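Q: Give me a protein?
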Amino acid sequence: MRLQSSGITLLLSAVLPSLSSALSFDCAQLNVDKYKYDLSPLGGVHELYHVNETEAAVTNTTYVLNICKSLGSKASDRGDDGKCGPTKRICGFVNRHPTDGNGSKRFGFPIVGLEHMGGGSMEPELTRLATIDPETEGVRVKLAGGEFRGDDDEGKKKNTAAVIDFTCDPDRSGLEGLITEEDSADADEEKRRRDEKSRDGSLQFKSFELSEDDTYVLKLDWRTRYACDNYQRGKQPNNSNSWGFFTWMIIIVFLCVAAYLIFGSWLNYNRYGARGWDLLPHGDTLRDIPYLFKDWVRSVINTLQGSGSRGGYSAV
């Protein structure tokens, strides 16, 4: 029994941290300063390219991201271009060509995501952009969990993170100009052509550099209507006022009718000693309602049948 209980304890200790960390960031449930954002429509594997040309080399970096879940093995394993890890949400794949033609490099590195087997934490930080700039609407998402070895770091890996400013743009879904996982199978020339075409896309590269806290930070700007402060409220209009008005009107009418019947019945009982149907005010009229309705229906049917008959001389 002790062996079984210890085994269960070890199993839970290994599984629970993974579950808690996996649930640490939910793209569909972002609550910041009493505002709710649902970024799940932006989910899926997307790619973004950036070319950096210097005198020493031309570096083409492909950033692959899925803000809602892990990339998986297909998107995070680029074969000769490098590997990143299936539990990551943002990866970078570097293709560096020195100008002298010697020492080309291809490698992948993680920027955001969980450790192997889902452990670790992305350390999410959420901030409304209005608290930074009152004229800007949206939400800033900061996620961590990767590492990168820079050119000047003497072989030492440093932590990485991503800061994505989801900026409100009512005219954009956020998917404009994005390259999907299926498009990534195209040749390099086609990729560059798509990159030029998507320069005005909703997702834009801002920078990837070493910050003051000695962390490499990828900064992106993502314009989308889903980052508007009141978008969720606009999707589901608040009809509580109109519904409340009709509800109160129905209640008031019901109470008036009930009061009229009760008071009229009490009056007929005390004044005339009425019983049964005679208790109700205008009881004769109420008893005649079914017959009046039947006569009205018969009159309507006769009118319709009469309008459909043909005119002309009748037989003598």
Notes: The longest helix spans residues 240-272. Helices lie at 2-22, 72-76, 188-197, 231-235, 240-272, 283-308. The first strand starts at residue 30 and ends at 32. Residues 27 and 39 are 5 Å apart (CA to CA).
